[in-house]
Specification:
The complex is a heterotrimer of chains A (249), B (286) and C (340). In chain A, 37% of the residues lie in helices and 14% in strands. By secondary structure, chain A is an alpha/beta fold. In chain A, the strands form two sheets. Chain A has a five-stranded parallel β-sheet with strand order 2-1-3-5-7. In chain A, strands 4-6 form a two-stranded antiparallel ribbon. Chain B is α/β, with parallel strands linked by helices and 286 residues long. Chain B has two domains: 106 residues, Translation factors (Elongation Factor Tu (Ef-tu), domain 3, Beta Barrel); 165 residues, Nucleotide-binding domain of ferredoxin-NADP reductase (FNR) module (Rossmann fold, 3-Layer(aba) Sandwich), CATH 3.40.50. A seven-stranded mixed β-sheet of chain B has the order 10-9-8-7-11-12-15, with helices on both faces. A six-stranded antiparallel β-sheet of chain B has the order 4-3-6-1-2-5. A two-stranded antiparallel sheet of chain B has the order 13-14. The chains are: A alpha/beta (249), B alpha/beta (286), C alpha+beta (340).
Chain lengths: 249, 286, 340
């Protein structure tokens, strides 16, 4: 029996769900292997009572999100965090520092009170429930999504790459941004996207999270030699990694 | 006669291409380990498939990957191989979900096994810890099938607890034989356990061996080697008569992918069995 | 081997001629750097290149290489053929030609690697002499010279090339596509003079005495801990290395899950999982042990089998390492003691 899959969104711009539609050629094949019982982006109905795999996009920013996640965890045997917001808190987590109410006020002005009720400090979904698989990135890489989904369906172990992305970047024969004195977060950011942005000519912004195997001390030291301060590195890295403890220094 | 690399090449131009093999028997050994009997489907290949105890195969499940597994059956039994497999990773997990009759892939046999013909005519002391019994069981059964060519045969086997003792059905039978000196031990005993309790090294105390005619073979978790070798050296066994089998990460099994480096050697082609003199000279080995 | 002389201005006509019968590759500019790429127009070929970002291994052992296609249901191989079109690489420096010969040792032998060897057999090589850059240390290993492993080698002697012709095919192609002339005493003298000038233009003579033994003797040296603290665990060194051959193997399923491809991808011994086994033991868990292993294998592991070190002194890893770890400095620290 095909696995019953739901796709739901918490606090996000739905970009990763849209990215799923960009799988295009392969999407119908994928849909042939699963029983997609609910896709929030495309559905107007309600979540079904039972399902096997929950793909969760977005960060947790309200009490309702917490409740939703708990229900999801009780129902699904597999939970996949989809995208930076779900995986690391992503952009919504920028609101996790400072005065939360002030942030809402700044963005929504007088309407702030009506924007969302029961709001809480933003967090990644693994702060609320256990997560089995992660597809990091803003937005997700569709190829990686397919690999993770198939691993989940086959019951294989989660394999989120631990190293920074310089190696794959080298295989693309990109000229290193540091050689031009520009800051690129690839040196501390989790590999797995094929160094896509760098290959397109933009430095890495760290959307895939800090690589567990990154050597931050050494990175800070070498950047200093190139005239790039640790403050600049952290400021840039926090855009997607506000909640990353490794950057609390 | 072992299948040589050139014989392999004649049967299979691409050494990365697995041979289809059928699972012909599955036996539950413990909560985490099963014994699989596999038969290569192609008659010519199955007949050419000759191996030494201590050699391994690459088990291939397409869509999941490959994993190196040492052969547990004896070379004296031909036409099939047995693999004692712990459900530990993706490939072994997928194998555990397979049914009798399913087809998987096999490459091999690869690596250097135990020097069986050199051991002949001598006493042997075999020491296994946990899953380390898997390759040693091949050697034990081979010796069993050639018993008159060997002197005293001593087997020491340690596991964490009685539930994790592998091949217990076979050892329970052998305990009553006087041509095998079999000693079992567990770290934590339960009510059913009547054998030893404690580390496998504890079994050396009461051991009476003649070091001048004894070959040793060791396989177990990485932490075990140092202690067992110390005991064997204490008994004055020669460094080049003690054989150890190492487990390392492997992808190719044929000396290309680089994963199984141990010191300046590769476990897949230079090992996985080394004698202790060689192993002493391999950095990071023990 | 026989020798001819070819005027430099004849290179474009030779290249044009060759590109009719081969997929022609050679050094072309990428920004201020160079890469080995298809030559469509002879004007793109830059024989004045210093080094290429990736070494020629990418053309024989691509960063991602399909090994076979398979079907899941019955675990069957659908196809493991290697398609290797006739190719020529025009413009490899001696270090990179030597590197390919070191790779050959690994991918041939008892179990021949069909993917690498098929591409190697279908690829002709035209070497070209170089001028040592600051980061070159090929002179330390004798890989500044190359005596075989090419079809034709062009040594720059001013307005002309001293052409060493090694293969029959190379000789035929020269005959077919370009005008060369016999060498004169003057040409040979110029060749010798160029070689002397080349040899004396290296910035230093690296002391490599007893390096394998030193690696064992200093296996526990604090040097490795210091390097481990600096290493970024990024693996860039392995990717750009012309002799690093380690690979990972992965199965990729098609979207319908029914078929898939088994691919191999470049791997690095600097990655944390490189020596980790399924149930968790990691034989090189620390960065220091991984940095050390790279040197240990290159300068001793490989040597113990093939009597050569697995380094050609191209300097790519030193340039790629943001943390500034350079084999030249590591060797100096091993030989003389102290930090690097």
């Amino acid at each position: 029996m095909a696995a019953r899959v739901v796709v739901i969104g918490l606090a996000s711009d739905f970009g990763c769900q849209v990215q799923m539609t960009n799988i295009e050629d392969d999407l119908l094949d994928v849909l042939g292997t699963i029983d997609l019982v609910y896709w929030q982006l495309a559905a107007s109905g309600h979540m079904p009572e039972e399902y096997d795999v929950a793909i969760v996009e977005g960060a947790v920013t309200t009490d309702a999100h917490v409740e939703t996640l708990k229900r999801v965890r009780e129902t699904a045997s597999v939970v996949i965090a989809l995208g930076a917001c779900a995986a690391t808190g992503g952009i919504p987590a920028l609101g996790a520092t400072g005065d939360l109410e002030a942030h809402y006020g700044c963005v929504y002005g007088q309407d702030a009170a009506q924007v969302a009720c029961g709001r809480i400090t933003p967090m990644a979904i693994d702060s609320v429930i256990g997560v089995d698989y992660v597809v990091p990135g803003c937005p997700i890489d569709t190829e990686e999504f397919l690999v993770v989904l198939s691993r989940a369906l086959l019951g294989l172990k989660s394999r989120v790459p631990a190293e920074p992305m310089c190696a794959i970047c080298k295989t693309k024969e990109n000229v290193c941004f540091f050689e031009r004195g520009e800051l690129c977060l690839g040196v501390i950011t989790r590999t797995g996207c094929g160094a896509r942005c760098i290959t397109l000519g933009r430095p890495c912004t760290g959307c895939r999270g800090v690589a567990p195997e990154a050597n931050l001390d050494s990175a800070i030291a070498l950047l200093a030699e190139k005239g790039i301060t640790a403050e600049r590195l952290f400021e840039r890295a926090r855009l997607y990694n506000t909640l990353e403890e490794a950057l609390d220094r | 006669m072992l299948m040589s690399a050139s014989a392999y090449r004649e049967l299979q131009a691409n050494p990365y291409r697995p041979w289809p093999a059928r699972i012909t028997s599955i036996m539950d050994l413990t909560e985490h380990e099963k014994l699989f009997e596999l038969r290569i489907i192609d008659n010519e290949v199955r007949e050419a498939f000759k191996f030494d105890s201590g050699q391994f195969v690459e088990l291939s499940i397409f869509g999941v990957g490959e994993a190196p597994i040492s052969i547990s059956s004896a070379p004296s039994k031909q036409g099939f191989i047995e693999l004692c497999v712990r459900n530990a990773g993706d490939v072994t997990g997928a194998l555990h979900r397979k049914q009798c009759g399913d087809v998987v892939g096999l490459r091999g046999p690869f690596g250097r096994g135990f020097p069986f013909s050199e051991m002949k005519g001598h006493d042997v002391l075999l020491v296994a810890g946990g899953l380390g019994i898997a390759p040693l069981k091949s050697l034990i059964n081979h010796i069993h099938d050639d018993r008159h060519d060997f002197g005293k045969v001593t087997i020491l086997y340690g596991a964490r607890n009685p539930d994790e003792v592998l091949f217990r059905y076979q050892f329970d039978m052998w305990k009553h034989r006087d041509d095998f000196d079999l000693k079992l031990t567990v770290d934590e005993a339960d009510d059913t356990w009547t054998d030893g309790v404690g580390r496998v090294t504890g079994l050396f105390e009461e051991l009476d061996i003649d070091p001048s005619v004894t070959y040793g073979a060791i396989c177990g978790p990485p932490v075990m080697y140092r202690y067992v070798i110390d005991e064997m050296r204490e008994k004055k066994m020669d460094v080049d008569k003690i054989y150890v089998s190492f487990e390392r990460r492997m992808k190719c099994g044929i000396g290309k992918c680089g994963h199984c480096g141990v010191g300046h050697q590769y476990a897949c082609v230079d090992g996985p069995v080394f004698n202790y003199w060689e192993a002493m000279n391999l950095q990071e080995a023990i | 081997m026989f020798f001819r002389v070819m005027d430099k201005e004849r290179v474009p006509e030779l290249v044009s001629g060759l590109s009719e019968s081969f997929e022609l590759f050679g050094p072309v500019a990428k920004g201020e750097k160079f890469v080995l790429d298809r030559i469509e127009d002879p004007a793109e070929l830059r024989l004045d290149f210093d080094t290429t970002l990736l070494p020629p291994k990418k053309l024989f052992f691509p960063p991602e290489d399909q090994m076979m296609r398979f079907r899941v249901a019955d675990n069957e191989v659908l196809d493991d053929e290697v398609f290797a079109a006739p190719r020529m690489i025009f413009g490899l420096h001696p270090c990179d030609i030597n590197a390919l010969m070191l790779m050959d040792n690994v991918f041939t032998g008892d179990y021949e690697d069909p993917y690498y060897t098929a591409r190697r057999a279908s690829t002709m090589i035209v070497g070209v002499s170089c001028v040592p850059t600051e980061s070159c240390f090929c002179n330390a290993w004798g890989t500044d010279e190359v005596h075989w492993g090419f079809d034709v080698f062009l040594t720059d002697i001013g307005d002309r090339y001293f052409v060493s012709v090694h293969s029959v095919k190379g000789a035929e192609l020269l005959d077919q596509h370009v005008v060369t002339r016999e060498i004169t005493d003057e040409d040979t003298a110029a060749f010798q003079e160029r070689t002397r000038a080349f040899k004396s233009s290296f910035t230093e003579e690296l002391d490599t005495a007893q390096l394998p033994l030193l690696l064992d003797a200093k296996f526990d040296d604090k040097l490795w801990d210091e390097l481990g603290e600096r290493c970024l665990s990024c693996g860039a060194c392995s990717m750009v290395c012309p002799t690093c051959y380690c690979f990972d193997v992965k199965d990729r399923l098609a979207a319908d899950g029914k078929t898939g491809v088994r691919v191999r991808t470049w791997d690095s011994c600097q990655f944390s999982e490189f020596a980790e086994v399924a149930h968790g033991d990691n034989f090189r868990a620390s960065r220091a042990s991984r940095v050390k292993y790279r040197y240990y294998h290159k300068q001793w592991g490989y040597l113990s089998k093939f009597e050569r070190v697995l380094c050609v002194g191209c300097g790519r890893c030193a340039k790629a390492c943001l943390a500034g770890i350079s084999p030249r400095e590591v060797v100096k620290a091993l030989e003389k003691g102290g930090e690097c």
